[in-house]
Amino acid sequence: MEEEDELPLLTAVSSSARQLYLLLRCINFAEKAHVQINDGGLQFSVDEASVMEGSAFLSKDLFTTYTFRAPAPSQREINDSDDEDAPLEPDLPTFQISLPALLETLQIFGLTDPSTSKPHWARDAPASTATGGAFTNNVLGMNNMCRIAYASPGSPLSIVLTEASIRTTCNLTTYEPTFANEIPFDRQALAFKTIMRGTWLYDAVAELSSTSPEKLTLWARTRARKPYFALSSSGTLGSARVEFNNTPVTRAPPPTNNAGTVDAGAPQVNLLETFQLSDPTTPFRASYKFSLIQRAARTMSVATKVSVRVDEQGVLSLQFMIEVEPGKVSFVDFRFVPLVEDDEDVEETQFLGGEEESDESVMEDEDEL
Amino acid sequence: MRFKAQIHNIQTFTKLTASLNSLGPLAWLKLSDEQVCFTIIPEQGTQVWAVLSIDTIFDTYAVQSAANNVINLEVPLGPLNRALKSALNATSAQMRLTKKDSIPLLALTISTTSSNNSYSAFPAGANRDDNAIFDDHFGGNRETIITQEVPIRVLAPDVVSGLHEPQTREPDVHIVLPPLMQLKSISDRFTKLAMAGARAGSGTATTRTRLEMAANMHGCLKMSLKTDAMSISSVWTDLVNPELDPSQVANGDIGIVEHPSTRMKLLGSADGQSDEGWASVSIDGKDWGKVMSVGRLGGRVIACFCHEHALILYVYLPTDSGEDESVLTYYISSYSA
Amino acid sequence: MMVVLNFTLTPEAAAKVHDLLVCLGKFSDTVAIEARRERFIFTALNSSKSAYAALTLDGKQFFSSYECVPSHGGPDGRFTCSMYTKALLSVFKGRLYDPLGRDGAIDRCEVSVQDREDETQCRFIVKMVCNQGVIKTYKLTYEAVDVMHALFDRNVARNRWSMNAGVMKEYIEFFGTKTEMLDIFAGEDGRAVFKSYTEKIANGKEILKHPLVTAVAVNTSDFEEFNVQPGCHIIISVKDFKAIVIHADTMKTSLKAFYSHPTRPLQFSYGCDGLLCEFTLMTSGDYNGATALPTPAPAAQVSRGASLAASAATSDARENRSMRPPVEPPSRRPPRRQVGSRQAALPNRPPQDPESLFVNEDEEEDTQWEPADYNNEEEALGWDASADRNAGNFPTFQDSGSFSRPDGVQSNTDSMEGIAPTQRVSQVKGLW
Fold first, then answer.
1. Of A331, C114, C155, C383, which sits 20 to 30 A from C182 (CA to CA)?
2. The CATH number fitting domain A190-368, selected from 3.90.580.10, 3.20.20.100, 3.90.226.10, 3.70.10.10
3. pTM of the predicted model over 0.90
4. pLDDT at residue A345 greater than cutoff 50
5. Do C217 and B145 touch (CB under 8 A)?
6. How far apart are CA B318 and CA B322, in angstroms?
7. In 10 A of CB A364, how many CB atoms?
């Protein structure tokens, strides 16, 4: 396939298909993903109806070899250039592929945690198969070798996985990119920002999902100079709220004999590592479609940390830091367009199905603490 | 009509019924003085003809009938498997043919002995006196007798006389399959890819989960699939093509020289890169997944490829003697190309 | 005046609430709650009304703190309501208790009821206080209902046995799936036989679809107590039995059975650490027998509207803890039809199980047992949290045998600790 005088645009070799899989699985909510190849790695992005987008970056650090031969900028561009030293925008290869197909391929040999040496089917293999020549190589380490190649524009994206005496070759059809507008997010004008453990957020979203809600509402406020962040939702069976307080609960405990353990036992951990509000005097609130937020749940569950940011327009950015192996991190990003709330109080009251759930009274509730 | 036997290898019997049950709910069970045969002939999909030596699963075996001591039964595999599972920790398990309210049954009588320790979690909060009483009661072993009644139908000889094992031509390629758990794991992914491809593309219902399987006489097995979004293939190398036994081939040594597999040896290569020398079949991935369920028995499996015609699997049950006395034969026909 | 109900649970106790809800969920989509000053009771009745569960949580022993001041009824007053089992389970999830304190584990659970006069909806508020400053608060809607109890007279139930639930769990694992009935038989050979089977008799090829018949023969010496008349067969639902055994096993305790004879109710009882579980099950007649199957009485779970009517009609209502049969003349009961007329506004009624062992209720009575539609506006507006909820005439359904009981027996509270049975519809109708 590769002609001698035409080296492939990209050759990348990873010693762990599993790492690539774990990152790409985070954004597995659309049939097709956009792929952009550049010097630093491969950017995979998906979007849904322009109200949510997710992207995962496979940095070249994840590969043992990563060779990207950027196509030479076109002659015209060079001629038109006034300054020869000015960096030229190379035509970065961009195309779409089937994301589910890529994910199935990456896990074709199974996905066992590297700490357990054998894949499930090797562990379960009956002892009797361990005798006889052909049956001895059923023990396959799952950190299988994976080679990704992209020869030239229009070529398939080729994935080759080898494991012991099995070789899997997959050629993914590359489709023309469809350039959807990126959801704009203004990092310079943040209304709210906090950083917390991914699993805290995961736990909260999982908890709220039990009410089968349509909407997720974020609340943030500085109360008595202490950060307060909460997520709430409501459905037919009732409403639920998960709140994060940076200090252990100090409310006068109800008559319970174990109330003292909170102060005595709980370590002084800050749930919210960073906490910024553009206007600390006003409670912050924004709502999003719950089912879309839930798409990021798997990422929350594997992320070490998540940076939750909302800009002045209400666009929510969730940036997840994922540790693919000790000391080596990758990032997965999501953006969500907020739900428009015309008459907030009325809608909120209706939605939550009770007056006591209105903005004011929720905050009142907190002031009591 | 009389049948009574002690179950000798409950593990094997349980796994066997589980494997067969994945292909069809009912089996024709033929009990005779020499063999125990299970046959599954589903309306569509793979047929299984299993011939077991009696001592593979039974002990002190007695079968009597007016028809040359042959008994033909139709047996529901799900309930039989469920019944056998309850005997996995048995001290003894007996199976016999009986009748109750004029309904014929296979009755399993299972004895289990549990020591007091089998439920070590004593009531943590219960008061001590209770425990003391408890210990007195259960100082020894508890013997429990479990009876499982599997409803069956007795088949008359003329009902089964029309059932014959399929006839196939000499295979082009025969090869020992890699461990089935491995093969199943990979082929299940192929099937998922085929289904995803069918959803996205224009595949019709019948082509939805169709996979290509091929093998050559140089130790290679290949599985492949092509959809709109991708083409994928996995190639195994270094597998074994067993030598044919002249005593098992028509015309002996001459038969081997003229055997299709002998000609196939001249084609293809051991690295699986050549396009030549492959005998291939087109099979349904979902059905193949059910066939792979036999892997739990842990036997050696030889696959015989009749190019574009059929794939026949011989599953040899492991035996103490090392002889291949018990064989399950799976007949998988190829879709036409 | 509004009810005061506040309590706090340790993680261990909250996990036990999870376990008991899982069990009750196998009987009914809704659970009823009855809170009294000293105890808190979950009850559930299955749709065929053949099984009734009452799980009593002791105020002092089960809770780390418990305060209940019913709005009416003085020392014997009570607060009652009904909720979806699923809604409670979504709050009382598994793994609330984790000795290692991992995510999901809680530090304590605080529950309160908001039943204000000015609220259009009532809320059951559960606050899970987790480690490190995470607090999860749920506000669940509930519906006020009257809660009724089945009566069970242990004096009459002379057949008794008791066995470690863990051992019993080993036995139920042998039962085939999809079987319906369990015959508990006391042999004359020192063995007891638990037989799971399905009553349907199929013909021809259908026979092969017949579920397994499984008989587990156990030495009576393996029971902690076995005092059953030899030759006695008693038949219950195998599904109910499994649910009960599995729950009893989570408590690592012994399961006790009390019964008299077929067609009379049977009671299973177990408990420890301030949690007492009692299940009253209808039994059927002789094994394979043609005995007419009795139907438990429709212990109508009347809506609040109906209960208010009841309260109004019986201003001299008595607290019914004594489990005496009701003495009000039938004419003073709320007319049934008034309640039944609501049925058009109650969708989602589960279909009658055509294979139910038990005789179907007539439709009107069955409807009354259905949970109200929480989304139905009209129904919700009908609630009146401020209304005088008299702790009065709590209807009770009775073991028909108790009607002929002399007063002396009735006053024997020991024999009345249970809750239970059920009676023939025809008899109930006769009473009214």
1. C155
2. 3.70.10.10
3. no
4. no
5. yes
6. 7
7. 11
